[in-house]
Specification:
With 153 residues, the protein is α+β, with helices and mostly antiparallel strands. Helix content is 24%, strand content 29%.
Length: 153
């Protein structure tokens, strides 16, 4: 049985997270242009709340938040780890972080094939973001997670 852990991303994770993002099968074909030359930098990881899911020494998932306005900027799960529950675990972790940061809701501009996943995780549709050529030539669903505050005890 593989054990997983989530930890705050550090500068040393930048290359492994970039490799995870670049290897995503979900961004091949018509969606490949959005990741062309894309890189998750050390500065990006230092600037945003960003977390990695590890299986032993491998990075198998990653997400990052933008604090203002509150938005899930990136969420990726390694192709080999799809269907294991890591994506759901990362969303739950992200919502906990958002609550800790005082966010009431978190916006997601979804990759079209991921929309159903976000809806299953509790996000609601809020609109559509129009294309922004030349890299993005398709509409992207806009969703929102309502952040539930933990009960005070």
């Amino acid at each position: 049985m593989t054990s997983y852990r989530i930890s705050r991303a550090s500068a040393s994770d930048a290359d492994r997270v970039t490799a995870l993002v670049q290897a995503s099968a979900a961004y091949q074909g018509e969606y490949a242009s959005i990741l062309e030359d894309y890189r998750v930098t050390e500065d990006y990881l230092a600037t945003h709340p960003a977390f990695v899911a590890h299986a032993q020494r491998d990075v198998v998932g990653f997400y990052s938040l933008i604090e203002y306005p509150a938005e899930l900027d990136l969420l990726f799960v390694a192709d080999s780890a799809q269907g294991t529950g890591i994506g759901a675990w990362l969303v739950e972790h992200m919502l906990g972080q958002a609550a800790d940061l005082g966010m009431a809701e978190v916006r997601v501009v979804s990759h079209p094939p991921a929309t159903g996943f976000y809806e299953r995780m509790g996000a609601r549709r809020a609109g559509v973001v129009p294309p922004s050529p030349p890299k993005i030539t398709w509409e992207r669903p806009e969703l929102v997670f309502d952040v539930k505050r933990p009960p005070r005890g």
